Each structure stands twice: as C-alpha cells, then as structure tokens.
C-alpha cells in the first residue's frame, strides 16, 4: 500500500459543508470511473449510476432524503440493476449486490477525496 493512499484513507472525513460552486464534469467522470473499476462479486457489474445536476431534480431528491440539509450541486445515485442480478442467478439471500454497492461507494468517496 502506498503512503499516499494510506494518507488519503486516514484523512477522509464525512463533511457536509457544501459550496454553491458547480462540480466540474471532469471530476464527476473521474469519480464515476473509480466506481466502474471497483471490485464486484463474480465481476458482475450490478451497480448503475445516476448523476443529478438539475436544480429541480436535486430539490426533489432532498424531499426524499430529509437528512440532506444543504443543497449539493450534484448527487450521484447508486442503483442495483436487478435484471443483471437475476441474469447471474444471485440467490434471494445473496447479499453480494448490497456489498458491491458499499465497495463502490467507498471507492468513489476515496476518489472524490484524493
């Protein structure tokens, strides 16, 4: 493990102090790319991403996420593609798609922080 990666891991914090500055498309793409390269159970890519930047849609997201106190400029939703889950015959009690979501989220948060 590189010293730089370890420093990134140790310094990452959840900070909900958002600015009104737009997030550059290049940064969003790098974060999404990190998510796409995250490991997945059986290398089955069940995670799908929805990038929301439209102000009206962001307000609607806040309605369903009461813990979101500030107004972010972008939200990246992670969704499970249940068709892929079914195609790959994950069993009903298999938690792999949920674990994959957690791995993808953590990878994306580390990428955003680095």
Report on this structure.
This protein is mainly alpha-helical. The chain has helices spanning 3-11, 25-36, 55-64, 82-87, 96-113; strands at 47-52, 75-80. The protein has a single domain, classed as 3-Layer(aba) Sandwich (NADH Oxidase), CATH 3.40.109. Strands 1-2 form a two-stranded antiparallel sheet. Helix 2 packs antiparallel against helix 5 (96-113). The model has no long low-confidence stretch (mean pLDDT 86).
Question: What's the number of extended β-strand segments?
Answer: 2
CATH topology assignment: NADH Oxidase
Q: What is the average per-residue confidence, as pLDDT, rounded to a whole number?
A: 86
> Structural class per helix/strand content?
mainly alpha
Query: Main beta sheet, described?
Result: 2 strands, antiparallel
Q: Globular, elongated, flat, extended or rod-shaped: what is the shape?
A: globular
CATH superfamily grouping: NADH Oxidase
| Beta-strand percent range | 5-15%
Summarize the structure.
This protein is mainly alpha-helical. It has helices at residues 3-11, 25-36, 55-64, 82-87, 96-113, and strands at residues 47-52, 75-80.
List keywords for this structure.
114 residues; mainly alpha; NADH Oxidase; two-stranded antiparallel ribbon; 5 helices; 11% strand; globular
Topology:
Layout: H1 3-11, H2 25-36, E1 47-52, H3 55-64, E2 75-80, H4 82-87, H5 96-113
Antiparallel strand pairs: 1-2
Helix pairs in contact: 2-5
């Amino acid at each position: 493990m590189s010293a730089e990666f370890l420093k990134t891991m140790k310094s990452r914090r959840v900070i909900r102090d958002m600015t009104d500055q737009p997030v550059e498309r290049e940064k969003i793409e790098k974060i999404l790319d990190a998510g796409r390269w995250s490991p997945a159970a059986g290398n089955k890519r069940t995670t799908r991403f929805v990038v929301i930047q439209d102000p009206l849609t962001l307000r609607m997201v806040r309605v369903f996420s009461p813990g979101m106190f500030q107004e972010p400029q972008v939200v990246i939703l992670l969704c499970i593609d249940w068709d892929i889950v079914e195609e790959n015959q994950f069993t009903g009690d298999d938690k792999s798609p949920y674990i994959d979501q957690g791995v993808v989220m953590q990878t994306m948060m580390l990428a955003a922080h680095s």
